[in-house]
Amino acid sequence: MATIEFTAFARTTEGRAAARRMRRVGKTPGVVYGGSGTPQPIELDHNALFHALRNEVFHSSILSMRFDGAVTRVLLRDVQMHPFRNEILHVDFQRVDETKKIHMKVPLHFVNEAVSPAVKTQGAIISHVLTELDIACLPKDLPEFIEVDLSELDTGHSLHVSGVKLPPGVTAVTHRRTGDPVVATAVVPKAVVETEEVAAAEGEAGAAAAPAAAAGAEVKAPDAKASDAKAPEKGGDKKEAGKDKK
Predict the structure, then answer these.
(1) Which among 6, 137, 192, 230 has the fewest CB atoms less than 10 Å away?
(2) What is the 3-state secondary structure (H, E, C) of the chain?
(3) pLDDT tens-digit profile of 88-143?
């Protein structure tokens, strides 16, 4: 995993007025806390930080912060954005202690969805209920993302957190209220179900109509034979009438 670096500078002024002045000149105020050091106010280049935040890995990886001639390993902990402008108001970083476990939200990457029985044979749609997972691990074991294999997911079933294969040294953090949360579930769309029901109903109607048609054909056959049998009787009557005239 490539290390992501950024540069921070010491911030000597604090307060709302000072923060507004910084933003006007393209700077973003922030703070670094945790570890063995005291909280350190910092400032960063706004545009560089804005583009870095668009990278998913920046949110879930250990970062290298260049500050005051040294490199410190940190985690991004909080970003405050302007309500309606693409402007970062404040950012928080936490120093990393290599000997202590960290809690992070890591993105989930779903794979093999198209080959799952739910999608391949039944036309189901798989809903991604969770897009990230709260985990605990040592800094050296922190993954950029967790891969979720959906190749075995069938219709009417769900994949829970307990069914996700986690990297070595990583454990999922869940809460008593949520229990074993659902990660993904497969549901057949209503339109597909209705189409199948209509096709089944038409099939049943066709099967029921076939015996009735066969029975109708059997009834018509004797009528034809009966009309044929009556024909000679008319000829016989004419012969008898001729005999009487003689």
Answers:
(1) 230
(2) CCCEEEECEECCCCCHHHHHHHHHCCEEEEEEECCCCCCEEEEEEHHHHHHHHCCHHHHHCCEEEEECCEEEEEEEEEEEECCCCCCEEEEEEEECCCCCCEEEEEEEEEECCCCCHHHHCCCCEEEECCCEEEEEECHHHCCCCEEEECCCCCCCCEEEHHHCCCCCCCEECCCCCCCCCEEEEEECCHHHHHHHHHHHHHHHHHHHHHHHHHHHHHHHHHHHHHHHHHHHHHHHHHHHHHHHHC
(3) 999 999 999 999 999 999 999 999 999 999 999 888 999 999 999 999 999 999 99
**Per-residue pLDDT at 95:** 95
